[in-house]
Every structure is written in C-alpha cells, then in structure tokens.
Amino acid sequence: MKKHVALKNFLEQTVEKYNKKEYLETDPISMVHKISGDKNRETYAFIVSIFAFGNVKSIKTTIQKMLQPMTDNVYSFIKNYKKDRTTLFKGIVHRFIKEKDISCLINALHIILREFGSIEDLFMHCYNKGKNVRKAIEGFSEITREIYRKNNDNFSERTLRFMLPSPENGSACKRMNLFLRWMVRKDEIDLGIWKGIEKNQLIIPLDTHIARISKSLWLTKRKTPGWNMAEEITENLKKFDPNDPLKYDFALTRIGILEGKKHK
Fold it and tell me: For residue 129, which phi and psi values (nearest 5 degrees)?
C-alpha cells in the first residue's frame, strides 16, 4: 500500500512538473502546435509521428525539410498532391527512410484524404466496428498499407511495415499510439482534436526508454517490449487514473530526456 501511494505521488508530481507548454520544444509535437486548423494539425501530426524515432533535433530537421513546400496548409497540399512531384523530397533522408519512401507515403496519404476525407474518418471507420483501439490500429494499418502498395511502385515493403506496424505482429506500435494520444487527449501538450475515442481506451506509446522506466516503477513484469507490455503498463497506470492513464506518458519521457541519470 505504501509503495502504491509513493508511486502515485511520484507520478502526479512528475505530471505537474512537465505537462506544461514550456517543455513542448523537447518533443516533436511542438511543430504541430505552430500551425492552425484541425485538419492541418491532424495530417501534420500523423506525418510527424511516423518520423518520431531518433533524437528530437533530427526528427524536427527531417519534418521541416519535408513540409517546407506545403507551408502551413498541409491538408490541402496533400489532398491535391500529384504523384509526379517526387522531386519535392529530393535528398531528404531520415535514417533508413529515403526520399522514395517519403514520396510513396505522401501519395498514399493523398489517396486516403481523397477517399475518406481525413485520417480520423479512416481510423474511426476501423474503430467503430468494435470500439477497440487495438483492432482499429490493425484495420487502419491494413487499409493504409494496401493503399500504399496499390498506388506506388518500387517501394520497400520492409520500410512500409516499419512506418505502419500492426499489433497483429506483436508490435507495440509506439508511433501510432503516440499519434492517437496527441489526437485524443487535450492539455497543454496534446491537441484533443478527435472526440470519438475515450482517453481510457488509449495505449501507452511504448519504446525502450518507457519500458526501462516502467520496469523500474513496477508497472510491468514483462521482459520484452511489445504490444502486451504496452497494455500491461497502461492497465497499471489506470490504477492511478482510470479515466486518463496516458497523462503520465509525456512526463515520464521527460525524465530521461531532461534529467539524465538523476533517476537512474
């Protein structure tokens, strides 16, 4: 009982300290806050989430290069995108994701926006079938991958599966869950654009950093990061806030980024 109280106090204090605008620049979501319009922000955030691996500086550099031709009207640009404009991304590389992969992704998003109207509409099409985030991510990834394959050629299947993973294969789907957190939650960090999903349906965006912290805080007994570990951590966080377990996510990630070895 004492351990539970101590951990809750620690988590709440961490949220109180870090879930503030002054820490936005330590996260890629800061880029989305700088543009206006829900559809622009949603589309921009989805692209940012796909490239949200590596250090924050390199993520921002890649996204700035990618979106420079789109200015702030990301939604309209992609909805009216022409497949032959691949030279827009010439020379842009983010680790193993190359300019060809980027043009294929933008083209797939173009088809989604033309056929469904928005990323939210496609995701809710999958979510409303069972009101289950895991199943919705699986359906969303399957449909988006198929659109990607049908409308592009000479692409890397391996890169496609990295950009659009699925819980079906055991993946924690960190970047997709991060995007959902940005869309569903609403505070000084998260945007709260989507209204059809409850906050307690979200799953924590799990990476090796959060896995390590969660083990230290007794939030998981699992050894291998994956979807099952993400679910277990989320369920344990619900013991501290059953309605909004992911309010702790941004704050916990700041510990390693900003405090280094202090909490090792």
Answer: -70, -30
